[in-house]
Amino acid sequence: MMVDVVLKEGSVTAPKGFLAGAAKAGIKKAGRYDLAIVYSPTLAVMAGIFTTNKVKAASVLLSQAHLSAGGGQGRGVVFNSGYANACTGEQGKKDAAGMAKATAAALGCGEEEVLVASTGLIGACLPMEKVLAGVTEAAANMSLAGGSLAAQAIMTTDTVPKEIGAEIEVAGHKVTFGAMAKGSGMIHPNMATLMCLVTTDCAIAPELLREALTMAADATFNMVTIDGDTSTNDCLLALANGMAGNPTLRDAGDPGYAAFVAGLTEVCRHLAQRIAKDGEGATKFLTVRVEGAKTERDARLAAKAVAGSSLVKTAIYGEDANWGRIICALGYSGADFDPNIVDMYLGELQVMRQGQGVAFDEAAAKAYLSGDEIVALARFHQGEAAAVAWGCDLTNDYIAVNANYRS
Amino acid sequence: MMVDVVLKEGSVTAPKGFLAGAAKAGIKKAGRYDLAIVYSPTLAVMAGIFTTNKVKAASVLLSQAHLSAGGGQGRGVVFNSGYANACTGEQGKKDAAGMAKATAAALGCGEEEVLVASTGLIGACLPMEKVLAGVTEAAANMSLAGGSLAAQAIMTTDTVPKEIGAEIEVAGHKVTFGAMAKGSGMIHPNMATLMCLVTTDCAIAPELLREALTMAADATFNMVTIDGDTSTNDCLLALANGMAGNPTLRDAGDPGYAAFVAGLTEVCRHLAQRIAKDGEGATKFLTVRVEGAKTERDARLAAKAVAGSSLVKTAIYGEDANWGRIICALGYSGADFDPNIVDMYLGELQVMRQGQGVAFDEAAAKAYLSGDEIVALARFHQGEAAAVAWGCDLTNDYIAVNANYRS
């Protein structure tokens, strides 16, 4: 089914009934936003997808508990950057709870109606005095304009804030999405390391919101890799407050639900691509498309392996059409395919036919690879399934960014 | 059971009854050895472990077929570097068979008694005229001294040749091992990308040689990672010609078999570590030890994830005691453990106790990390299983080596 989704500039306050506030709390370097609150005064349906890492930040554990205790309903999220509040033991749990409690007090809502998301250095405790002062300040300055400040406040090694809006129609009602994300390193499915919040004024049942979020994440954030490291703090959160006035979506067969999934997926895809483009040290954005796979799982495994290969990434950085590394990564991906019938293209240029290299124009390849958006396509000719993964090149700057992260 | 294994300088011609020859055939840059033959005039028992990559080089497919057709018996291996003979279609298969045939003709043995191993660029066909001339030359100059030349001939981006010898005692008979390996990039279990041949004069049944080789590889080459890329050409081969005169090992309960496994494992461990130390661009050798895991599988998964993490590797390069990245990698490794009771050490310095960071002397940490051999130890306190993985730091030189590999 084709659905109209209109992406447009926007922040988490683009949908009706959302406010946001941010503070320069001094958690990160002075002079940068590092704490934010996003708030729906109207009770909203909430859903979250969290890191699969066995080591989970205190904020992740608290948000999971609040989602469960609140039955998937709530009003706000408090974010901080600078410290991940992971591997911080009992003190970390107290601090995450303290953030939620202070935010709930400032907003005048229940503690369980607040989720917490932290990002930054693993293993050090939050400077709670600064955090609590920041919560007070961010709550006091909430506004529509605060949405874009919130997107700044969640940045760590990101070089640019990442936010987007979108509109769809549900049963004659305009439904709006707003979203922000951070992510630049420690990025790998599942999940891409990230902190992402999608707000919407759609009226939707909690179980459908959860289902839609999972589907959207699988096709987007779970297809981005920067460095193969799955973080302790990943979270993708969604708040839907129903202010659009559409009849509440309760049935997966409802055409309005298809529109909702399409809108949510487009928003997530946009941000997932932005994350790959802003990968630590990245100079090139890599899109890997696998077509003709037996199953979607095969296509996804294959595309992700290529996007995640250090050798592919360095070759892209070097503008070297070393397609042997791509077929090598396809081969170890775990995907089921016949290497002897694979075709492969870099942009429009065919480099492999039926499992073998073809003579190609090296100058044309070099010219194509000198661009900053590279598309590698593999056709398996074994079925109808396809998938796309996104990544970036591996550069000296990735090493520079990460060799002295704590210093 | 403790078994005496004496490692000593040596090459693949260290055991009785092995000869080797090498040639500068012009397959790689002029003036470098790039083709080698290792030969046992006496019929030997052979075993091989090959890449798990779905895309297998023609040499891998041919060697698998010859091992199968020959019932695990044969006399020699022909090696080339420069071209991997992978993704080369029917021509590649003909070329691999041509290498075996020419070698068999030069040695005066059956084609199926010869295995073939190629390494280098994927996707281009072998320059067969040069290869065949090289076979003739290498076969003509076989000698005991040729063992070390063979180790040079299999190098690609390796900066040093890698070979070793060892001695054990089996039922009062001295049994000798010799081995050579190449590997520097595209290194990841299973298998570590490599080409490795172990020769021995032990008398051993084919099925025990296969079993011993698998056990040795699991504890050694399968615990090395440089860059997470599993190649198309990995092979670990073993030839045992029985010239030591020991009663043939036929029973896994035989103490002589335990000595054999210990010797084979020590030889493989030595070479696996040498490969990690010679990782592309590496400046530091990283050993990751996991203790107290529930199962060996958990311990191996955990140790390998840390050794393979780009973020851990860049932190080691930067001499930054960012242990949060280590616990993060343990967490996404797939190993089952309780993050809240993990202890962690960098060298002698404890950095984590019961899942939380401990205050440590940053100057002492920096001093330790400024060394070129770094040991990270995690204790899970959940059982008795342990494992060790080896890797190296991720540096600008890795990128320099790989950005323009084909050029």
Would you give an account of this structure?
Two copies of one chain form a homodimer. Chain A folds into two domains: 6-277, L-amino peptidase D-ALA esterase/amidase; 285-403, ArgJ beta chain, C-terminal domain (Ubiquitin-like (UB roll)), CATH 3.10.20.340. Chain A is globular and about 70 Å long. In chain A, the strands form two sheets. In chain A, strands 1, 2, 3, 4, 5, 6, 7, 8 and 9 form a nine-stranded mixed sheet that branches. In chain A, strands 13-12-11-14-10-15 form a six-stranded mixed sheet. The relative contact order of chain A is 0.14. With 407 residues, chain A is of the alpha+beta class. Chain A contains eleven helices and 15 strands. The interface between A and B is large, with 65 and 65 residues.
**Largest beta-sheet details of chain A:** 9 strands, mixed
Largest interface, with counts of residues having CB < 8 Å to the other chain, equals: A-B, 65 and 65 residues
Number of domains of chain A: 2
Q: What is the β-strand count of chain A?
A: 15
Strand content of chain A: 25-35%
Query: Helix/strand/pairing class of chain A, anyone?
Result: alpha+beta
Measured as a percent range, the helix fraction of chain A is 25-40%
Instruction: Give the end-to-end Cα distance of chain A, rounded to a whole number of Å.
Output: 51 Å
What series of H and E elements makes up the topology of chain A? EEEHEHEHHEEEHEHEHHHEEEHEEH
CATH A-level architecture of the largest domain in chain A: 4-Layer Sandwich
Q: Predict the CATH topology of the largest domain in chain A.
A: L-amino peptidase D-ALA esterase/amidase
CATH superfamily of the largest domain in chain A: L-amino peptidase D-ALA esterase/amidase
